[in-house]
Amino acid sequence: MDPMENSKQCGICEDEKSSGIHLFRLFICSDCETNMIHTEPREEKYQYYLHKLKDIQQPPIYS
Fold first, then answer.
1. Is the pLDDT of residue 49 over 90?
2. Gap between the Cα atoms of 29 and 16, Å rounded
3. How far apart are CA 38 and CA 25, in angstroms?
4. How many CB atoms neighbour CB 11 within 10 A?
5. pLDDT for res 1
6. C-beta separation of 19 from 30 below 8 A
7. What is the rounded radius of gyration, in angstroms, for the C-alpha atoms of the chain?
8. Confidence of residue 6 (pLDDT cuts 50, 70, 90)
9. What residues have CB less than 8 Å from 49, skipping those under 6 apart?
10. Confidence of residue 61 (pLDDT cuts 50, 70, 90)
11. Distances (CA, A) of 14 to 19, 22, 23, 52
């Protein structure tokens, strides 16, 4: 089985990765998840992550 067969595009780094999490409709690779967790608010990359995450839309809930 090809490891890239199950890959998805990360919504942060935009690379094709096979492991990560889904935050609503956004896939975040494990590398970006780790980097985001360890980024302090005073760091420049913090603003980059906020910009990437601001467009996340919660999927509709049908009752």
1. yes
2. 9
3. 23
4. 19
5. 46
6. yes
7. 13
8. confident
9. 12, 36, 39
10. confident
11. 13, 14, 15, 11
CA distance linking residue 4 with residue 40, whole number of Å: 32
DSSP, collapsed to helix, strand or coil, labels residue 22 as strand
**Rounded-to-integer distance, Cα 29 and Cα 57, Å:** 18
- Tell if the pTM clears 0.70, that is, is over it: yes
Domain ranges of the chain: 6-53
Separation between Cα atoms, residue 50 and residue 15, nearest integer Å: 18
Asked whether 20 and 28 are in contact (CB, 8 A), the reply is yes
